[in-house]
Design goal:
Layout: E1 5-9, H1 21-33, E2 37-41, H2 47-51, E3 68-70, E4 76-78, H3 80-90, H4 102-113, H5 121-132, H6 135-149, H7 158-161, H8 164-180, H9 195-208, H10 212-220, H11 231-238, H12 240-243
Parallel strand pairs: 1-2
Antiparallel strand pairs: 1-3, 3-4
Helix pairs in contact: 1-3, 1-9, 4-8, 4-9
Protein name: GST N-terminal domain-containing protein
Domain Glutathione S-transferase UstS-like C-terminal: 130-211
Pfam families: GST_C_7, GST_N_2
Length: 248
Amino acid sequence: MSQPVILFDLPSRDPCKCWSLNPWKTRLLLNFKGIDYKTEWTEYPDIRVKFQDKFPIPEGAATYTIPTVKLPDGKYITDSIKIAEYIEEHYPSPSIHLDSPYVPKIQKLIATLMELGTGLRGVFLALVPERLLNPKSVDYWMETRSKMLQRPLSELTADERGGKAWDHAAKSLHEVTRLLKENDGPFFAGKTVTYADFYWAGFLLFFQRFGTEVFEKLISCTGDGEGADNVHLKLLEAVKPWSERDDH
């Protein structure tokens, strides 16, 4: 019997479930492809320790990251898009259509949404340690993200933590809504699943983990109402076969 793929993912507080955007993309992909895998939960401070003797930091990367997968042949691949490229090549059916024109469009919109000034960076920088991380990872998050921000996270303003951040994000969220409505969904390409769907579903699932009020605020900023006909909620419903496995 061949060994399963090992997915290295970030744990959450109990009940431990997948929460972060990038691991979600890989988890959705593995579930969609029907690939045998098991999860190895790894706290932030343990990532480097776990990988430094297994493979070098990838060229162009600042440090070791999650998601990382260990393949049955012992090879490690890190970075969600590189994992997706490998999986699509070696497990081609069903295809995830990495060449879909929706993939770069959603990548660009999510990049905008993950920044300060144009998106929701301040919202999740504050909420991740407050609502999701185990104590072991909180100090790591506060130190590394404060360094990225070039000021302590405690100095995030009320507008950066919410307020105007949602107003800034609305433009990009409305554009995602427009793209989801270009075809007769529930996916960006209509009835065909592409990797763009896992990008966006991962983003939605990430914000869903912050709690009902945060997720409802996100949905209310999409410009598509809050009922069952909301195209973002329809996408989440459509990916349920691949998002239900979130804790192992």
